[in-house]
Structures are given as structure tokens and as C-alpha cells.
Amino acid sequence: MAFPNPQEALSAAIRGVLLKWTALTLSIDNHHDRRRATAAAETMYSQALELASRGRDATEISEMFYAMFDTIDTDVEDGSPEQVAATIVRARDAAAKGDFGPAAALAAPASTDASRARSVIKHEVEVFGEGDESAPLRAQPQPPRLPRAPAPVDDDGFTTVVRRGR
């Protein structure tokens, strides 16, 4: 993809990386107010473009991402804001030197669609072990419960409590 100038390359790279960002896509798709979440994503794009154009570092850009995720009540604890910010800074620095390859790679359509990621996340349940939040455990499927027998009722219509031996 040919870009007329570094600013156009940076704009396309930022839009491309935000469109491929799974955390952002899922937060928009699963937010109770989709319009507000979409507006926050557009604000992320414009602020990331502004910060990157002014030569800000990846830390400032990732802090902006965290602040924007807070506005849509989403906790992103996977480190992806730092990775996305670093990717944007690398694309900006390369475009400033005349190398539009990283920007073109980011602007290219995603090779995997978000529906695949959604289906994986939807079907995986993670349960954290007590005291050790760094080691997620997979929840074991529960066997189907057997139907309970009806409680015995005495002559007066009261339910009789049956003691179980322990």
C-alpha cells in the first residue's frame, strides 16, 4: 500500500491496529451501550493519532488507552494497551524514516476475524485458584444433576424432612 506521506501512513496504521485489537473489539461488541463504546473507540483513534503525531512515547499512548477503557467500564489487564502503543510508535518511527512497510502491514485487513476470538472466549471459562491469580485453571464441566424425588408429605399435608445419614 502506497501512502503519500508519513501522516497518512500513521493514520492508516492506527486505524488498522485498533480494528484488529481483540480487547477493543470485544469491549464494543459486549458493552451495554454500543454507541458510547464506539464513540470511545473513535476517540481512542483520534487521540492516539494526535499523541503519535506529536512524538509522544508509548507510555503516554498506553495511559490514554487505559483511560479510555475506563470510560466504557472495561478492565484490560492483559498488557495489550502497551503492546498496541509500542506498535503504533514503531510504525510512526518507520514512516518518519520513509519506510511505510510496518504501516502497510498494520493497515492490511485482518487475517483472522474477531468472531473466531469471540467464540473461543465465549466457550472458555477461566477460574482463578485461591491466592494465586497468575495461574488460571480451566473449569471442569459439571455432570448433569439427577432429578430429586418429591419430598414425602404426611396425612396433615406437611412435608416430612428425611434425615440423611452422615
Q: How many angstroms separate the termini?
A: 74 Å
CATH topology: Endonuclease III, domain 1
Total strands = 2
CATH top level is: Mainly Alpha
Give a written overview of the molecule.
This protein has a single domain, classed as Endonuclease III, domain 1. The chain is built from seven helices and two strands. It has helices at residues 6-20, 22-29, 34-53, 58-71, 80-96, 101-107, 114-123; strands spanning 126-129, 132-138. A two-stranded antiparallel ribbon has the order 1-2. Helix 1 (6-20) packs antiparallel against helix 3 and helix 5 (80-96) crosses helix 6 (101-107). The relative contact order is 0.14.
Structure summarized in a few sentences:
The chain contains 7 helices and 2 strands; from the N terminus they run H-H-H-H-H-H-H-E-E.
Set down the secondary structure blueprint.
Layout: H1 6-20, H2 22-29, H3 34-53, H4 58-71, H5 80-96, H6 101-107, H7 114-123, E1 126-129, E2 132-138
Antiparallel strand pairs: 1-2
Helix pairs in contact: 1-3, 1-5, 1-6, 2-3, 3-4, 4-5, 5-6
List descriptors.
166 residues; Endonuclease III, domain 1; mainly alpha; two-stranded antiparallel ribbon; 2 strands; 55% helix; rod-shaped
